[in-house]
UniProtKB/TrEMBL annotation:
InterPro entries: Znf_RING, Znf_RING/FYVE/PHD, Znf_RING_CS, Znf_TRAF. Keywords: Coiled coil, Ligase, Metal-binding, Zinc, Zinc-finger. PANTHER family: RECEPTOR-ASSOCIATED FACTOR, PUTATIVE-RELATED, TNF RECEPTOR ASSOCIATED FACTOR. This is RNF41 ligase. Residues 18-56 form the RING-type domain. GO terms for molecular function: ligase activity; zinc ion binding. Residues 192-243 form a coiled coil. It holds the Pfam family zf-TRAF. A zinc finger (TRAF-type) spans 101-144. The gene is Rnf41. PROSITE patterns: ZF_RING_1, ZF_RING_2, ZF_TRAF.
């Protein structure tokens, strides 16, 4: 849908009107036959038709192009009233700058920022509404630190709130202690498995050393026996030499 023609000041050229909604072009596109449309209007039309609504020439979304520059410039220079005119805004500005003005207009209807409040107020009156809004929040004046809504003032009980907070803290502490306990047990199990593995490796190494020592002792005994045999042979040879 385009901009309501009634909002514009002065004459609006027929070529700047949407061929479908007959309002002033909004986000315009142009067909090869040079008829112009609001983007939303022509896209909605082409969902059910395959031709121009003015001259019935065949068109497709891929054939649509932006408005000619001179037409775009003429469109942007049009003067119109702010849409908040009914609320008291008297601003008249160009179509090119109307969106920027309306985003900041003091007469715009905006929702209250308090959760749960459905009231819409003019931007200029928002601060006044927030000061009296029944959904506004504040700190408990008795010092319990709890944030309360004005609507809950009569139901607020500091002792009950602090008791609830204490229970929550206790539950959280118990959870943290359990988590720390599980983590420590997991670490101890991991270290225990590691130590058992190391013990097994050391035990194997000890057994290997024992086996090597046993072989060495056997070799030493064999060497000692060979040495005795060799000494006896030398003594026997010396004896025979003396006899000769």
């Amino acid at each position: 849908m385009g901009y309501d023609l009634e909002r514009f000041v002065g004459y609006v050229n027929e070529g700047l009107l949407c061929s479908i909604c007959r309002d002033v072009l909004e986000d315009p596109l142009q067909a090869p036959c040079e008829h112009a449309f609001c983007t939303a209007c022509i896209h909605g039309w082409l969902l059910h038709h395959r031709n121009c609504p003015e001259d019935r020439q065949v068109i497709d979304v891929s054939l649509l192009r932006p408005l000619y520059r001179y037409m775009k410039n003429d469109l942007n220079r049009l003067q119109l009233h702010c849409r908040n005119r009914e609320y008291g805004c008297e601003m008249v500005c160009s179509l090119e700058s109307i969106d920027r003005h309306e985003r900041e207009c003091e007469y715009s209807q905006i929702p209250c920022s308090n959760a749960g409040c459905t009231v819409q107020v003019e931007r200029r009156n928002l601060d006044g509404h927030l000061a009296v809004c029944e959904f506004r929040s504040r700190q408990c004046p008795n010092g319990c630190g709890y944030t309360i809504l004005s609507a809950e003032d009569t139901q607020h009980n500091c002792v009950a709130e602090l008791r609830t907070e204490l229970e929550l803290l206790r539950s959280e502490m118990i959870c943290r202690v359990e988590e720390a306990k599980h983590e420590m047990e997991s670490r101890l199990d991991s270290q225990r498995r590691h130590m058992v593995q190391k013990e097994s490796i050391l035990q194997n190494e000890i057994e290997e050393l024992k086996s090597q020592m046993s072989r060495m002792m056997s070799d030493v005994r064999s060497l000692m026996a060979a040495e005795r045999q060799h000494r006896q042979e030398l003594e026997q040879a010396e004896l025979e030499k003396r006899e000769l």
